[in-house]
Amino acid sequence: MSGQGRRSKRTIVMAALGLACLVSGIAWLRRPAPEAPPRFTGYVVSDNVYLSSPVAGMVAAVSVVRGQRVEVGTPLFRMEPTSLVARADQARAQVGQTEAQLLAQQSDVARARATLAAAQAEVDRADAEQARLLAVARAMEGAVTAQQLDLSRATLLRAQAQRDAARSEVASVGARLESLRAQLASGRAGVTAAQQQVQELAPVSPVAGRVEDVLFQQGEWAMPNAAVVSIIPDAKLKVRFYVPQGSVTSYAPGTAVAIACDGCASGMTARVDYVAPRPEYTPPIIYSLETRQKLVFLVEAVPSAPTRLLPGQPIDVTPLGTLAVGAAR
Predict the structure, then answer these.
(1) What is the pTM of this model?
(2) Residue 13 lies in a domain
(3) Is residue 310 exposed (0-12), middle (13-18) or buried (19+ Cβ within 10 Å)?
(4) Full domain range(s) for residue 174
(5) Closest CA relative to residue 240, chosen from 309, 329, 327
(6) Fewer CB atoms < 10 Å away: N or C end of the chain?
(7) Domain identity same for 164 and 119
(8) Is residue 5 part of a domain?
(9) Does an H or E element contain 88, and which?
(10) For the segment 183-209, what is each residue's pLDDT rounded down to a tens digit?
(11) Residue 206 and residue 73: Cα distance in Å, rounded?
């Protein structure tokens, strides 16, 4: 083959290779983009704890302010205790009086039982004397007169009547004693309740969290059971989002999800703990048109770092491990 033929063949091969590379490049550029992971827009909700006074009264002091962090046992507020303290003192005085009456009644019971024992002894003696006279009369005719037998029977009847009266007295004083014991138990329960109410006039935080609002200030009058301080507990903060009905089975309770929000640190997670049993047509809060779904299920998840979130804050939710960007967007 001549040199010119070989050059022509080489040119054709290189052109074919170039065409193949061009086709491959075009195919690579036109490949379908990888499917983006599902992302749902939700928001933070909380189940607040409301602290109130059991009785109406004036707010004597407030120890917290809105937005303050509180731990378990942190003092929150104090109500004016005058009326309840007086009631507790009165209940204690009544208990003391009942205790004195109970001691006196116990003495009466002891005396009544002693009287009954003496009356029973007299019955036993009179009964024994009558039995002796009857035995003598049977053994020796004329040794015991009819008058002696009649006197013995009368003595026995009188002793039996006194014994029966003593039994009735023991039952009566015993009933009064039990009544006083019940009254004392009721009085002590009243003292305990009054003391508990006095303690409830200065409640402490039962949870760790953040003070959402102070509803009454020092000097204001609060009605009974009216909330004075509301707290957002850390343990009751949740992320609420809505999942299309076609994907809801992927978010069963226990499923971990990644969450992100504006200004939040990256890597935050949450764990699903509730899925609504019924669907709805539109979420109650829509932050963007992308979140509109025709049929969605409410899902709630407990965040791993609740102290970094605030109720009402918009949250992006994706399956765990697919969130590629942090909070800053």
Answers:
(1) 0.56
(2) no
(3) middle
(4) 82-200
(5) 309
(6) N
(7) yes
(8) no
(9) helix 82-139
(10) 888 888 888 887 777 777 889 999 999
(11) 6
